[in-house]
Design goal:
about 160 residues; alpha/beta; six-stranded mixed beta sheet; 4 helices; globular
């Protein structure tokens, strides 16, 4: 997927790690609705995503300073999963894919789907070979040797 041109990107202040922590997919509304019913959350539980600074639409382009990015919609673990692709060189994966010796995310959360997770994983693995993957929830087994977050995609599979 080619990166958008600067004129098509929404400019965002701050750095990538700040935005990854303070933003979410617009689909978070669906997840919150499902969680409210599944987990019997209080009526005051906020469903509109207003606790986040920004809600990305699926595959929305953005800029942080000179960095161009795309918030890739990669559902499966939950309907709101996104991965941040930055400068066509790296992807901050989130909850979709783990290190190869651990596997993929679970898909039994409300709204999760094995079929969507499979498609999202295939979409991530279709990125260019040199793309660096930064994975979430890295719980390495004691036997891990030679694998590390941020290595080129081809080396990790």
């Amino acid at each position: 997927m080619p990166m958008p041109t600067p004129t098509t990107c929404r400019p965002l202040p701050g750095c990538v790690s700040d935005w990854a922590a303070r933003s979410a997919s617009a689909h978070i509304r669906d997840v919150r609705q499902a969680f409210r019913h599944t987990f019997n959350l209080e009526p005051e539980f906020c469903l509109d995503g207003s606790q986040f600074d920004y809600l990305f639409e699926a595959d929305e382009a953005f800029r942080i300073g000179n960095l161009a990015g795309v918030a890739m919609h990669v559902p499966g673990h939950a309907p709101a999963d996104i991965a941040y692709r930055v400068d066509n060189t790296c992807l901050f994966v989130g909850d979709t894919l783990f290190m190869p010796d651990v596997g993929t995310a679970r898909c039994d959360f409300p709204g999760g789907s094995a079929a969507q997770l499979y498609r999202s994983t295939r979409r991530i693995l279709a990125l260019p070979d040199g793309t660096r993957l930064y994975l979430c929830h890295d719980y390495p087994p004691d036997s891990r040797q030679g694998l590390r977050p941020g290595q080129p995609r081809r080396a990790a599979i």
